[in-house]
Amino acid sequence: MTSFAAVLLLLAVLMILRTPIAFAMGIAGSVGLAVQLGPRPALGVLERAFYDNTSSFILVAIPLFILMAEILTAGDVTRRAIVACQAWIGHMKGGLAMATIGASVLLAALVGSSTASTAAMSASAFPEMRRHGYNDRLSAAVVSVGGTLAVVVPPSIVLVVYGVLTETSIGQLFIAGVVPGILTALGLATVVKVISHRTDYAPEGDPFRFGHAVRTSRHVFPMVLLIVAVIGAIYGGIASPSEAAALGVFGALIICLAQRTLRAASFGTSISRAIQATVMIVAIVACSAIFSNYLAFTRVTQTLLEMVASSDLPRFAILSMIVLTLLVMGMFMDQLAILSLAMPLAFPAAMELGYDPVWFGIIVTKSVEIGLLTPPLGLNAYVAASQTGVSLRTIFQGLLPFIGVELLVLFILIVFPDLSLWLPSLM
Length: 427
Prior knowledge:
The chain is mainly α. The chain has 23 helices and no strands.
């Protein structure tokens, strides 16, 4: 146990020194394996861990989904989705804010990245709300919380990484995220509606014009068809997530070329960004495997499972501790770092308690989603602050009622597992 404590201390020091989480886990795990097994056997374990976890076919889905999102963003399709939602419900009191949440759902189904979604909404929706006299506190909070929908709504990159780390069906995870995503969006829209009627933060927008709404929607209709085709192919068992991702990239290219909105330079930038994001995620997956192997050889995971099995605590109490730990970690770390650190221990413990791996994935994903909004890190709040110029203090104050609803939705998903498992059971 002394060597295990030293490895944990090394990991903590590396993280404090702001070493990327992938490298921190890889270095700590490698040192631990060398101490535990010796240098030569440790190299053999490292070789196997790298190969086994980076040669998986399911990893192909990651760069393809990221590339699909980058192409649609470069082709101006995401901005048009925001404009279309605003055209339909922007005239209502608080309508622009609710339209921003509606557009965030569409973006979530296309982008798969919360920070990218928040940045897009901050650049497009926030100026429009400010122009119509919306209070900056509400506007910045809405674009921050809207971005979190990309964490749970398929095709979420977080769900893909969870599926790879825990060997859980990514197709079932995607389908399981549909109802929680819709439930979350409805909860956020309800908060906006209540705030708009109790305060003067959200005035009415421009008068509704049916013709204008129809004209703006015709650019978005192909995007909706693409979403339905990608998710439907997975749900119907026609294609695997990787194959559906390839379909998504092809469809995104066709849409952008047909609408003549994609330039050669933008396309090259999209590929570059997709490669950078993919390398980061694959590095996290590989280095997390190294650390997991170290935990396996030290029998820490087995000891934890034995403690859980022999514990007198009820299942719900142990699950509550896991969720609370994830929420606290979310205050200081990003989602992928939390998954890579927590899943080697939390996932086996949850399986020992008899929980469904797909349902547990949704609970974990929802927990790390909330961490994107909570101080002191609150990554989405930082992105919104940098894009909008609104102070972090103001944004965090505006986020308080939304965080409350997010916690309520998390509690509902825990108490009623069928909300997450109903659609996957029909696949």
